[in-house]
Design goal:
The structure is a single chain. By secondary structure, the chain is α/β, with parallel strands linked by helices. It folds into two domains: about 5-170 and about 215-240, NAD(P)-binding Rossmann-like Domain (Rossmann fold); about 175-210 and about 245-310, UDP-galactose 4-epimerase, domain 1. The protein is built from eleven helices and 14 strands. Strands 3-2-1-4-5-7 form a six-stranded parallel β-sheet, with helices on both faces. Helix 1 links the parallel strand 1 (about 5-10) and strand 2. Helix 1 (about 15-25) crosses helix 7. The longest helix has 20 residues, at about 85-105. The structure holds 2-amino-3-ketobutyric acid. 2-amino-3-ketobutyric acid binds next to loops.
Length: about 300
């Protein structure tokens, strides 16, 4: 039986939904507590708690009651939503992180996973094959909160020996759950609309290339870095993570191989400016070198797998 007791905060979101299934397969259903700001259908699948991550007292009580030793903190406002609610974006993304980091500082839990994002990069960052260590200068609230969060993670590691691990996710695409307010969300919507209506109006322009990843790879990386030996996790801010890159035009062409009559139109909105400030491709050499990162899916394999699952 697993000795780990895991709490996933923000478990009903795009990543959490799939992460909880996978963690339960590895650690056992009763050892993985799902939690979100409100009760969701996930509560029927195994242990579930309603948690407001801003409420440090409530969080501490639940962690202690379940004897949790690892926390995956996924609750956050993503790029597009945080631009609409900048103050809430900053407060939620930062206070939530502090509340969890402090639990580890006080030795109540012993390992944390916290996601960062390609949003930590900005318009002055080299856009191709973006290195791990480079100019950052994010221009969105989400990116600023993620960059500050990365600095705090490294600070807590160095100063208080907090075992925190993090990945800079690219845009994530999966069939099990909907994305929630990001700039890369189009890459999920496009599949649903292709099957439902045969057409999609994209909010980014046709040649906007962004780094992306299929969800099974993101889950593999997330559980992989959490299971890696501590001495292998050399970067305690956050690791670059790479899958593959594509533009709306590229993915439309791939979709047409499955649905030849599919059409796409382009009506860029405010999310275009966010996308234009992000890298086009990411160099993940450090993640490969330090703890063995290697993606399984490319654009074609992802598209085939998305359709075979969504059609079911
Ligand atoms: C977003 O678009 O905000 C997220 C991200 C890249 O972190 N998917």
């Amino acid at each position: 039986m697993s000795k780990d007791k895991i709490l996933v905060i923000g478990s009903s979101g795009q990543i959490g939904t799939e992460l909880v299934h996978n963690l339960r397969a590895v650690y056992g259903t009763d050892n993985v507590i799902a939690s979100d700001i409100k009760r969701t259908a996930q509560a029927k699948e195994g242990p579930f708690e309603v948690i407001d991550v801003m409420n440090a007292h409530q969080l501490g009580e639940i962690v202690t009651r379940h004897d949790v030793n690892q926390v995956y903190l996924l609750a956050a406002l993503l790029s597009a939503t945080a631009e609409k609610m900048p103050k809430l974006g900053w407060e939620l993304n930062m206070q939530g992180l502090f509340n969890v980091l402090d639990l580890a500082k006080e030795k109540i839990i012993d390992r944390i996973y916290w996601p960062s994002s390609i949003a930590v990069f900005g318009p002055n960052t080299p856009r191709e094959n973006t290195p791990q260590f480079t100019i950052m200068e994010p221009s969105t609230v989400y990116g600023i909160s993620k960059q500050a969060g990365e600095r705090w993670c490294e600070y807590y590691f160095k100063k208080y020996n907090v075992d925190v691990r993090s990945l800079r996710y690219p845009g994530l695409i999966g069939w099990q759950s909907a994305p929630g307010g990001g700039t890369t969300d189009y890459a999920v919507h496009i599949f649903h609309e292709a099957l439902k209506t045969g057409t999609y109006e994209c909010f980014l322009s046709e040649n906007t290339t962004l780094p992306m990843m299929y969800m099974p790879d993101a889950i593999k990386a997330t559980i992989g870095i959490m299971q890696a030996d501590a001495d292998k996790v050399k970067i305690r801010s956050s690791y670059n993570l790479a899958g593959f890159s594509f533009s709306p035009k590229d993915i439309a062409l791939e979709i047409k191989k499955h649905i030849p009559e599919f059409t796409i139109s382009y009506t860029p909105d405010s999310r275009q400016q966010i996308a234009d400030s992000w890298p086009q491709s990411i160099n993940a050499t450090e993640a490969s070198k330090d703890w063995g990162w290697k993606p399984d899916f490319d654009l074609k394999q992802m598209t085939d797998d998305m359709f075979s699952n969504l059609k079911k």
